[in-house]
Amino acid sequence: MPTTEEDALDLLQYLTEDVLRPLAGMDAAALAARINEHIRQIAGGREVRILSRRLAHPRHADEEPPRPTRPPTLHSTSPGSKNPDLIRLILDSVEWFVSQQNPALPMSRVAAIADQVIDRWQIDRNDLRYIPKGTWRRQRANARKIYDEFRTSTYAELAARWNLSEMRIRQIVNKFRRAEAAERKAQTHSLI
What we know:
The chain has 192 residues and is mostly helical. The chain folds into two domains: 5-131; 135-191, no CATH class. The protein contains eight helices and two strands, in the order ααβαααβααα.
C-alpha cells in the first residue's frame, strides 16, 4: 500500500495503464495519464471518502450499463456529507475516457475495465484521504524550463515571459546552480 496520497495516485495511473494496454487502438499511457490528471483536477485539494465499490457504484450483471453522456464529477457519499466518493469518481472517469476513446467498445466491457482498475488498486476502504492537486510537479517542470531558458535569456526577459518576479527567477536559477555545483563537487571527490 502506498504511504502517501501522491503515491496512491501514481499507482492508480500505472495500474490503469496496465489494464488498458491490451485494448487495441488505444495509447494506454496517454489515456491513463489523462484519467489521472482529470481525477487530480476534480478531487485535488480536498478530502475524499473511499467507499467500497459495491456502495459506490452498484452494478447489475443482467443489464447493459448506459454510456456516459457528460464528464464525471464528484458525488457526495451521503446527503449530509462534505466528503465526496473517490472510488465512484475513478470508476466514472475510467468509463468516460475509455468510452470516448473507443465508442465501439460495449459499455459492459468498459464497466468491466473500470472494475478491474479498482480491483487492482488495493487501498483501505471507508477511509478519508486528502488528494493533492499535483501542482508541485508542474512547478518543478516549469522551474527546469526556466533554468534551461536562462542560458539564452536575462532575468528580466524570463520574468516577463513566465509572469514571475525577477527575484523568483533568481531563486530558481540559484537553486539549480547550487545543485549543479554540489553534483560537480561530489564527482570531484569521487575521483580523489
